[in-house]
Amino acid sequence: MAYIVVFVTASKQEEAEKIARTLLEKKLAACCNIIGGVRSLYWWQGKIADDNEVLLVIKSRADMFNEIKGTVVALHSYTVPEIIALPVAAGSEPYLNWIDQSLTA
């Protein structure tokens, strides 16, 4: 089984919470961490933007990425939301088993 960590930035805590709860209710995520106080500097429409954001860190499996992406896009306020999945190279067996159990229970 391939596991992933997905990063999604949001403009507000409430938006990140709505996305996280929806992913958990749909059993697309085993765990979502919401990290406040993120400052993002990035290129947008030919200029450097500087915004305060919230980072959502999602733990799941690679086979669920397309559904995660679709759910985030449907709920997100940004025109181009950050939805980046990174593979988990290694993890503790009990934790990875817990992810599987959480997504199928």
SSE layout and pairing:
Blueprint lengths: L2 E8 L2 H13 L5 E14 L2 E15 L3 H11 L8 E4 L5 H12 L1
Antiparallel strand pairs: 1-3, 1-4, 2-3
Distance between the termini: 17 Å
What string, H for helix and E for strand, traces the elements in order? EHEEHEH
- Largest beta-sheet details: 4 strands, antiparallel
- What is the residue-mean pLDDT, rounded to a whole number? 97
Oligomeric state as shown = single chain
Strand content: 35-45%
Percentage of residues assigned to helices? 25-40%
Label the structural class.
alpha+beta
Rounded Rg: 14 Å
What CATH calls the topology is: Alpha-Beta Plaits
Shape: elongated
How many β-strands, per DSSP?
4
Strand order, biggest sheet? 2-3-1-4
CATH class: Alpha Beta
Specify the number of helices. Answer: 3
The residue ranges in which pLDDT falls below 50 over 5 or more consecutive positions are none
The total number of structural domains is 1
Just name the CATH architecture. Answer: 2-Layer Sandwich
Can you put this structure into words, describing what you see?
With 105 residues, the chain is an alpha+beta fold. The protein has one domain (3-104): Alpha-Beta Plaits (2-Layer Sandwich), CATH 3.30.70.120. Helices cover 34% and strands 39% of the residues. The protein is built from three helices and four strands. It has helices at residues 13-25, 65-75, 93-104, and strands spanning 3-10, 31-44, 47-61, 84-87. A four-stranded antiparallel sheet has the order 2-3-1-4. Strand 2 (31-44) and strand 3 (47-61) form a beta hairpin. The longest helix has 13 residues, at 13-25. It is elongated. It starts with a strand and ends with a helix. The model has no long low-confidence stretch (mean pLDDT 97).
